[in-house]
């Protein structure tokens, strides 16, 4: 039976300050000694070992009620985390103010109620907590029954509520547009055809035709910048995408009171976007500068460690693929595989697949084709690659190129028809793919002996399609120009 490691994972995810807070609060409660003991034992383990916990000397009582003790300890930790977050949380503060307003209203303490409502509205408006703001407006409206508000004040209240609702609708509009852009990103990736661009432009036109008003919320402004950064990357305009990412990061940095308590850490997300977009533009010094900011803002949580390690790894892999000479290249490639194993269940599928693809590509351009193939065979399973539709055609093309370089011509005779059929079904059989696969088909044919002529023909094909706005985007995923250059050098 598989061991349940949920409690172990929870404890290991705690920061040092969260652990300290838990112990301080738990130590003043009666009857929690054995739970604290179990907490310390689990925290001391590097790898979860339930058998060792049960056999620990002096833990006879713990062994008898082990599952109950584990479950209760988890409840205590979550209760402690809620209290810890509530001490610093704007959302918790507003929630408590709403509860206080309800109590004051029920006790007919209307003056105090109105004072608390006014204070809550001010905080909710400043921090753009529009859901809370609507609640406070509704509470303020309740005072009309007690004749605490004049008729003109009531009218203003309704107008104010309409403005708040409009801000919420505006935010939801941009969220919906972002969802459409992300759908394109995950399904097709960087645009490679007129149909792809048409789909993208339809979504973009909806955003651009939206009337921008001067009273736009900061949250809406951030959502617009995020949408633009995705759209520019999809078009293959990496420099423009990077500049928008920088604007978004600055906006969030100047308005931390609004974004700090988002379910998804917007500050961290925008910082990671700058690191990634700068790396894609080969602006590695900027990536390193912002990676340093990420390290400095670390709270020593596991997610901090993962973000730092994975982004540093991606930075180094992109350097290698860009032809930059870096010290310890071999160690970087070994480390990449190590992270694939350690973080396999803690990375998004897309991030995992991109690391696999970039690692295999790095070995490919290092002419270590056996390692490139091994990485694809071991890590690029159907289950995983199929969940990244945008990347799967490029994984298949890389696989074919590796087998070509390994002279696996007999295997390629079976692979090529299958690959062409798949690419056509995915509408991913573009000029670049057609040219490369046709070249390989001719090269592996026993009838063709003039290979130099075929290589020159491939170069001519690429020279003709190089300026095609769709075909140049193929280089985003694989450096075909570098591969062809290597082919010509190996005449």
Explain what the structure shows.
By secondary structure, this protein is mainly alpha-helical. Among the domains are: 6-86, no CATH class; 90-149, no CATH class; 306-388, no CATH class; 389-491. 74% of the residues lie in helices and 0% in strands. It has 26 helices and no strands.
Number of helices: 26
Structural class designation: mainly alpha
Largest sheet: none
Q: What's the shape?
A: flat
Q: How are the SSEs placed, and which strands pair?
A:
Elements lengths: L5 H8 L2 H12 L5 H12 L5 H5 L5 H5 L1 H21 L3 H17 L3 H17 L3 H13 L8 H37 L6 H15 L9 H18 L2 H17 L1 H4 L6 H15 L3 H13 L5 H20 L7 H14 L6 H17 L3 H11 L2 H4 L6 H14 L3 H17 L5 H13 L7 H15 L14 H10 L2
Helix pairs in contact: 2-6, 3-6, 7-8, 7-9, 8-9, 9-10, 10-11, 10-12, 11-12, 12-13, 13-15, 15-16, 15-17, 16-17, 17-18, 17-19, 18-19, 19-20, 19-22, 20-22, 22-23, 24-25, 25-26
What's a concise summary of this model?
The chain contains 26 helices and no strands. The protein has 491 residues and is mostly helical.
């Amino acid at each position: 039976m598989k061991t349940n490691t949920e409690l172990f994972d929870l404890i290991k995810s705690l920061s040092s300050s969260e652990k300290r807070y838990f112990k301080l609060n738990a130590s003043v409660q009666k009857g929690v000694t054995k739970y604290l003991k179990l907490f310390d034992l689990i925290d001391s383990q590097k790898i979860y070992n339930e058998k060792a916990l049960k056999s620990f000397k002096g833990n006879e009582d713990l062994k008898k009620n082990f599952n109950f003790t584990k479950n209760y300890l988890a409840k205590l930790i979550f209760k402690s985390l809620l209290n810890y977050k509530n001490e610093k949380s704007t959302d918790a503060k507003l929630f408590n103010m709403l509860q206080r307003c309800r109590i004051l209203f029920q006790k007919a303490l209307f003056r105090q109620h109105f004072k608390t409502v006014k204070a809550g509205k001010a905080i909710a408006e400043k921090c753009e907590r529009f859901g809370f703001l609507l609640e406070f407006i509704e509470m303020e409206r309740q005072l009309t029954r007690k004749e605490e508000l004049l008729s003109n004040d009531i009218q203003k209240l309704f107008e104010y509520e309409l403005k708040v609702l409009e801000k919420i609708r505006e935010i939801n509009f941009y969220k919906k547009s972002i969802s459409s852009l992300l759908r394109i990103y995950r399904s097709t990736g960087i645009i490679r055809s007129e149909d792809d661009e048409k789909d993208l432009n339809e979504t973009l036109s909806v955003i651009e035709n939206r009337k921008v008003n001067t009273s736009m919320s900061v949250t809406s402004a951030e959502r617009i910048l995020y949408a633009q950064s995705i759209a520019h990357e999809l078009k293959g305009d990496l420099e423009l995408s990077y500049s928008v990412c920088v604007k978004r990061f600055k906006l969030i940095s100047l308005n931390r009171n609004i974004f700090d308590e988002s379910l998804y850490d917007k500050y961290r997300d925008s910082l990671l976007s700058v690191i990634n977009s700068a790396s894609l533009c080969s602006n590695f010094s900027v990536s390193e500068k912002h990676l340093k900011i990420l390290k400095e803002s670390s709270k020593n949580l596991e997610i901090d460690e993962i973000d730092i390690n994975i982004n540093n790894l991606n930075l180094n892999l992109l350097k290698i693929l860009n032809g930059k000479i870096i010290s310890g290249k071999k160690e970087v490639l070994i480390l990449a595989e190590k992270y694939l194993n350690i973080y396999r269940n803690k990375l998004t599928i897309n991030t995992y697949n991109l690391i696999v693809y970039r690692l295999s590509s790095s070995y490919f351009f290092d002419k270590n084709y056996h390692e490139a193939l091994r990485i694809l065979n071991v890590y690029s399973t159907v289950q995983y690659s199929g969940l990244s539709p945008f990347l799967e055609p490029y994984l298949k093309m890389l696989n074919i190129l590796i087998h070509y370089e390994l002279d696996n011509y007999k295997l390629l005779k079976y692979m090529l028809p299958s690959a062409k059929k798949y690419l056509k079904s995915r509408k991913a059989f573009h000029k670049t793919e057609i040219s490369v696969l046709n070249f390989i088909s001719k090269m592996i044919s026993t009838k063709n002996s003039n290979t130099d002529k075929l290589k020159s023909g491939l170069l001519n094909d690429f020279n003709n399609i190089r300026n095609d706005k769709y075909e140049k985007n193929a280089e985003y995923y694989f450096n075909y120009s570098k591969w062809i250059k290597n082919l010509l050098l190996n005449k």
